[in-house]
Amino acid sequence: MDYSPLRTALADVVAIPVTPYDADGAVDRAAYRALLRRLLDGGVKAVTPNGNTGEFYALTLEERRLVTELTVEEAAGRAAVLVGVGHDAATAVEAARHARSAGAEMVMVHQPVHPYVAQDGWIDYHRTIAEAVPELGVVPYLRNPLIEGAAVARLGEKCPNVIGVKYAVHDATRFAAVARDAGLDRFVWVAGLAELYAPSYWAVGATGFTSGLVNVAPNVSLNMLGALRAGDYPGAMKVWEQIRRFEDLRAERQSANNVTVVKEALAAMGLCRRDVRAPSKPLPEPRRAEVAAIVEGWSV
Q: Which residues are part of a known binding site for pyruvate?
């Protein structure tokens, strides 16, 4: 298969949409569709439903399927859809097959949630998923600093549809080594730690980055992408300075408020409710005002 269109889609801002809830705590379909349309109208070309900013682990199986279907319907040729899948291998395969039947082009495989991860076992887990959906592009979400580039390379040799890697280890030097050991050109390397890490990762090989902030301000994320593509690192760092406090708030206490801050900003803009599901928690009142002030300064 020709995976080049999918590779192009990954080399961009990969949006991770939030999952809004209604007053009864159910997925708010209308609000979700509206938020997606806002991303698409803002120029986003790739979206990941059921990502971590979408509260993947807090959604039920039925809700994850619903979000997948809503995303494919709204994207409708305007953006590539890579659906987050994970949990045990059988559940991930089932979700990947559902994504395929819904019309998605790719799946993003969440880091295996298991206390014991062997290099070969990591390969086997992703190979099981990739071989079940050979028509789809597959993107491992790599958060484990112990997974070596050689393991990624072996996975790529076995599975040609593994076309990209979302790398989310807080170490640009480690990323540079893993990408080169795995194959800098074999995979599309997506900086999985969003805008604050995008410049450093871009400098050593990334060609795309994920974003939760893009839910709030698509133009800000795309401005950073444009600067990075042009090799304008001072320009990219101006955006970095603009969003630093917002992203720092998300990163506090091991990213405890990763989703919460994004939803608070959207609530301040009147776009969805601020509700999140446990183990996340809404922000206290003083922080709500701070988030609202930051967003107001962006002129979104």
A: 53
3 is catalytic: no
Residue 32: its pLDDT value, please?
98
* Residue 143, pLDDT above cutoff 80: yes
Tokens linked to 297:
């300064």
Residue 38 to residue 40: CA distance in whole angstroms: 6
CB atoms within 10 A of CB 4: 9
Determine the pLDDT at residue 190: 98
**CA 45 to CA 52: how far, in whole Å?**
19
Worst-scoring range by mean pLDDT, 21-30, 170-179, 221-230, 247-256?
A: 247-256
Residue 70 has pLDDT above 80, yes or no: yes
Q: Which of 125, 166, 201, 263 is catalytic?
A: 166
Helix (H) or strand (E) holding 298: helix 285-298
List the domain boundaries for the chain: 3-216
Q: Specify binding-site residues.
A: 53
- Alpha carbons 248 and 32: distance in angstroms, whole number: 25
Residues 6+ apart with CB under 8 A from 216: 262, 265, 266, 269, 295, 298, 300
Is 166 a residue of the active site? Answer: yes
- Residue 243 — pLDDT band, cuts 50, 70, 90? very high
Could you give the angle at the alpha carbon of 209 between the alpha carbons of 228 and 20, nearest 5°?
A: 130
Could you give the CA distance from residue 29 to residue 41 in angstroms, rounded to a whole number? 18
Would residue 231 be called left, alpha or beta, if left means φ above 0 and alpha means ψ between -120 and 50 degrees?
left
Taking only the tens place, the pLDDT of each residue in 158-169 is 999 999 999 999
Superfamily holding 3-216 = Aldolase class I (3.20.20.70)
Distance CA 209, CA 189 (A): 8
Number of separate helices (H) and strands (E) present in the chain: 12, 8
Q: Are 145 and 114 in contact (CB under 8 A)?
A: no
For residue 213, what are its two tokens? Answer: 């902030």
